[in-house]
Amino acid sequence: MDPLLLARLQFATTTSIHFLFVAVTLGLVTLLVGLQTAGYLTGKPAYERLTRFWGQLYVINYVLGIATGIVMEFQFGLNWSGLSRYVGNVFGAPLAIETLVAFFLESTFLGMWIFGWHRLRRGVHLALLWGVAVTAYASAFWIMVANAWLQNPVGYEVRDGVAHLTDFGALLTNPTFGMAFGHVISASLVTGGLLMAAVSAWHLLRRTTDYALFRTSLRLGLVTAALAVTTLQGFGFAQFGPVGQLQPTKFGGGPDRDALVADWTARFGPGDWEPPVLSDVGLGFMILIGFTLGAVWLLLPLLWRDWIIRLKAPLWLILLGLPLPFVAMLLGWIAREVGRQPWAAYGLLPTAQAVSPVSPGLMLTSLIGFSLLLGALAVTNWMLLARHAARGAHDPALGRPPAPDTDAHHQPVFV
Amino acid sequence: MELAWYALLGLFFATYLVLGGYDYGVGLLLARRGPAPGSRTTLTALGPFFLGNEVWLVAAVGILFGAFPRLEGELLAGLYPAVLAALTGVVLVTAGVQLRSRPAAATARARWDRLVVVGCVLAALGWGAVLAGLLQGVPLGADGHVVGAGHLATPFVAAAGLALLALVAVHGATFLTLRLPAAEAPALARLATGLVPAALVAVASATVLGLLSDRVRAAVARPAVAVLLPLALVAALLTARAALRRGRAGTAFAATATALALPAPLIGAALWPRILVSTTDPAASLTVAEAAASRPTLALLGWLALPLVPALLGFQAMCWWVFRGRIDGRAPVYW
């Protein structure tokens, strides 16, 4: 087996699972901030119950985001040591900033938020959730800066075969960064909004208790998804210009591509310098899904007098539409990442030079082991999410008020 | 500049071993059968700290990537099997502790508990093997890459893995003595003191095997510092045992925390100025200065770290302060 293929398969598997979860994390935390802030300002208990219910789903989902994220961070060193050796001076900086500025604080805040119910002052508790949300966005920001640099290396110079940082500002103004960041954030909001709407729709269809509660979250989810789907499409189409210009090999033919391939052949020797043939097929399907999701706008007028709930059919449509943003997300990432092959850093470091000189046996063990482990955890996590979503909002474990301490000899109330 | 970043890397990894260490020690103790404290109470002791503990590892690897990119690639790829074990363990513990109480059925919870125990064993063995792998050097070729993974299969690596496992178990039991309700403390203190002899034996055998290993003797630049490590570990363990017997859980925890904080800085100092020592070609060894990122990168990260690191420490300290003290029936339960 070819270590390069194994390393690429492992990165694709881990990253795909990672995105399925972090998109929900980003989307839901934004909605949670809205819910808890509304509860803080109005003092209505309904908002606290909504925060606890959706917060519990958020926290369950968060687990897999961390688990896959840690594996991804280590994978750079394990399987892609060439990446750190040749471009680590530049590419490593945004990743280091992400772990320190964003992830470190995000997890610390989240730990305090989960255990801070009924213990911290309400304002402090709300501030912690804001902290979680802001650092989650910062995390996406820096990861996208790093990814955009691999798409279009800027702000560096090569000395002794190694890239050195010359202009950090160029990384932030990279044309492959801004629109892509907006696109990913919008996609996360669509995913989170649609997930909220779909779970609410299920409860409304089943006529479970808490009609008013799920009516509120249905409306919140739908409006969020509708607003975000518009920015999603905008940021998506806005990328075609700069990406087509900077990566002429990504979307197929043209004289620019032929010139670039000729240039690479002259500089790096003969080779297959074009991405795999089918790399941009998924992009078409993603765009199709994007237009389909735009139909959320057609459902908004039905919010008037709750026609959306009375007619029932729209609720079924929302339920059926839930897998769409997840599929679109994977297709979009495949188009972006496979489309820049055979480069780890476009036009600078071929993927084959970035892979670690590790034996194929070890690489295969790692690929199979982590794919099975993360795959099993992902499925278990979704089953737990589904079960907790179905159980409803009457008493989530998150934020459950502590029982009065009647026993001085400590008979724990833990069940 | 490199030295400052190297110290910061050491600080983050050492803090991870201290904080993640008691997570893993507490997780190991889920393997015990019998009466109170139950698994849920045990995990409630970790409670709010759990998420804030493992981030030290993620940040340490972030610093490794940002400030020492060459070391990051060669270290992780060169010690592949050990890192793989540690990483699998970290993932199992992360998922297991957080999801364990989400299913309602006792059988499902027991299954998660077993996964957490396996994860804690793997994480402790894996990180012990990584530290030992640094001490005994790697077959680093002239092209700057480590050849093969068989170099890790030595008795010293195995003994060091077991030593870290034993240290973590003592640390976890001591943490629980400090944190669980006072009624549980005497039984947990007995458990912790009972584990101390096992840890002493493990540390002693790792020391003997290390002294006998040609590779370790050749790799270590400062033997005095290297020998100081096991002596300090033994002293810390004996201090912890004496304190536990007198019912001073706080002092005992300080001692076990010191024991877990010491390996990273002392190993770094013993190998200085090298970090990856080549067993095959001394000239190919990687020094800290060579491994570091170039000046502009370190300067950029430095300006960022200057205000940031105090803020990170401050928010962690806030978490420890808010949730300090023994847990009781009113402690928030979630894991």
TrEMBL record, chain A:
PANTHER family reported in the protein's UniProt record: CYTOCHROME BD UBIQUINOL OXIDASE SUBUNIT 1, CYTOCHROME D UBIQUINOL OXIDASE
InterPro entries assigned: Cyt-d_ubiquinol_oxidase_su_1 (IPR002585)
Entry membrane topology: Multi-pass membrane protein
The family this protein is said to belong to: Belongs to the cytochrome ubiquinol oxidase subunit 1 family.
Protein name as catalogued: Cytochrome d ubiquinol oxidase subunit I
Transmembrane region(s): 20-41, 53-71, 91-115, 127-150, 180-205, 217-238, 281-303, 315-335, 362-384
Sections of the chain in a coiled coil: none
GO biological process terms held by the UniProt record: aerobic electron transport chain
Chief location category: membrane
Top-level taxon: Bacteria
UniProt keyword Cell membrane, yes or no: yes
Region (Disordered): 396-415
UniProt cross-references to Pfam families, sorted A to Z: Cyt_bd_oxida_I
GO CC annotation, single: plasma membrane
Keywords of this entry: Cell membrane, Electron transport, Heme, Iron, Membrane, Metal-binding, Transmembrane, Transmembrane helix, Transport
Compartments, as annotated in UniProt: Cell membrane
GO MF assignments: electron transfer activity; heme binding; metal ion binding; oxidoreductase activity, acting on diphenols and related substances as donors, oxygen as acceptor
Entry keyword Transmembrane: yes
Skewed-composition ranges (Basic and acidic residues): 406-415
Automatic annotation (TrEMBL), chain B:
MF terms (GO), sorted A to Z: electron transfer activity; oxidoreductase activity, acting on diphenols and related substances as donors, oxygen as acceptor
Record GO biological process: aerobic electron transport chain
Record membrane topology: Multi-pass membrane protein
Tree of life domain: Bacteria
Gene Ontology CC: one annotated term: plasma membrane
Claim: Membrane is one of the keywords in the record: yes
Compartment(s): Cell membrane
UniProt xrefs under Pfam families: Cyt_bd_oxida_II
Similarity remark: Belongs to the cytochrome ubiquinol oxidase subunit 2 family.
Listed name of the protein: Cytochrome bd-I ubiquinol oxidase subunit 2 apoprotein
